[in-house]
Write a structure and sequence with these properties.
Blueprint (H helix, E strand, L loop, with lengths): L6 H19 L2 H10 L5 H11 L3 H6 L8 E4 L6 H10 L3 E4 L6 E6 L8 H4 L3 E3 L7 H5 L9 E3 L6 H9 L5 E5 L2 H13 L5 E5 L11 E7 L19 H21 E11 L8 H10 L2 E3 L7 E2 L13 H4 E4 L1 H4 L4 E8 L1
Parallel strand pairs: 5-6, 5-8, 6-7, 8-9
Antiparallel strand pairs: 1-3, 1-4, 2-3, 9-13, 10-13, 11-12, 12-13
Length: about 350
């Protein structure tokens, strides 16, 4: 990859140029109408998604929290979906299967919070977003053989423990800079009987050279623009924040590529629909390193290859899948699959 001393400047230049293009081409009347109807939007958010989706952007902005599936992930280390559904129905919950994943359950009606049941406390399930569940199956952790699996930005370990479900006897290294989140990860791992996780308080950008992995999950810190349907989770971030996030994401990708073994798999995901944070930064990684786009079999919309004159590699269309609140009734989420040459 190009040295990080030059990449931040390039990212800033290209993203500012793209946004200038958006400002010059967006119809002001449509932008003003959108901002009037959705005053919680930052002007750059409205302009960027109108550019990305056209008239369909209104459907995205109008999607409410009630339209998003409420989902739980069955812990198959301790029970099965059918057994858990039976127990939850006896408590007054109404459920149906997750449309995309066998161990996911959609909670249709709930007499009380799913986080307040004895089954939750016993580790039979955990609460996880409907699209968030799809990043780990894309990684195929069960295929790891020799080298550890690395979760580079593990947070509270929701996806880390999901990796453990897929491969309960293989070492998983979970990295995060936040000690409180790592404490939560350890609690979640204990509750969910995930005994193969090593939690490390570390900035993944500084991953030691001796750590090598054949499977890496990079659920990157992002703007959270996929959470627009959730009023409590909306953030009025400036466009400079998008630029800053993209720089961090690229540096994390750089570290991931270095740690990945030959022919290893890297799954990159964000709870963002921003092209800047997904297809664009993935294109930079493909251009500047020995990583390549890999076929993504997940359901969802294909990756974006034409947006605001940004230099996007056409191969990301096949490597990335997008999940939209107004189409899939999930949080906004993007999953990309890459492979080391």
């Amino acid at each position: 990859m190009k040295p990080l001393t030059t990449m931040p400047k390039l990212i800033e230049l290209e993203l500012n140029k793209a946004y200038k293009h958006i400002e010059n081409t967006i119809k002001q009347e449509k932008l003003e109408k959108t901002l009037s109807k959705h005053p919680w939007l930052h002007p750059h958010q409205a302009a960027r998604y109108l550019t990305l989706l056209g008239d369909e952007a209104e459907e995205l902005f109008s999607t409410t929290e009630k339209e998003i599936m409420k989902t739980i992930r069955v812990n198959t280390l301790l029970t099965t979906p059918s057994r858990l559904e039976k127990r939850l129905r006896e408590k007054g919950f109404r459920t149906r299967p997750h449309p995309y994943i066998s161990y996911g359950i959609v909670v249709v009606e709930q007499p009380y919070s799913p986080g307040a049941t004895i089954e939750y406390l016993l580790g039979y399930y955990t609460i996880q977003g409907p699209a968030s569940m799809l990043a780990v199956p894309a990684l195929k952790p069960e295929e790891a053989k020799e080298k550890p699996i690395v979760d580079m930005c593990a947070g509270a370990g929701i996806k880390t423990t999901q990796i453990s479900q897929h491969n309960p006897h293989h070492t998983i290294i979970a990295l995060d800079t936040n000690r409180r989140k790592l404490a939560a990860l350890k609690n979640n791992a204990s509750r969910l009987a995930a005994a193969n996780i090593i939690a490390v308080n570390m900035d993944a950008r500084k991953t030691p050279e001796h750590i090598k992995a054949e499977k890496i999950l990079l659920d990157a810190p992002c703007s959270g623009e996929g959470l627009l349907p959730f009023p409590a989770r909306r953030r009025k971030r400036s466009f400079n924040d998008i630029i800053s996030r993209t720089k961090i994401q690229y540096s994390l990708l750089e570290a991931a590529v270095k740690a990945l073994t030959e022919e290893g798999t890297l799954v990159y995901s964000t709870c963002s629909l921003a092209v800047e944070e997904n297809e664009y930064v993935i294109s930079l990684a493909i251009k500047n390193s020995d990583i390549e786009a890999s076929h993504n079999p997940l359901p969802g919309e294909p990756g974006v290859e034409d947006y605001a004159n940004l230099p996007i590699d056409p191969r990301v269309k096949n490597a990335c899948k997008r999940f939209y609140p107004h189409i899939h009734h999930t949080e906004g989420f993007t999953v990309c699959i890459l492979r080391k040459k």
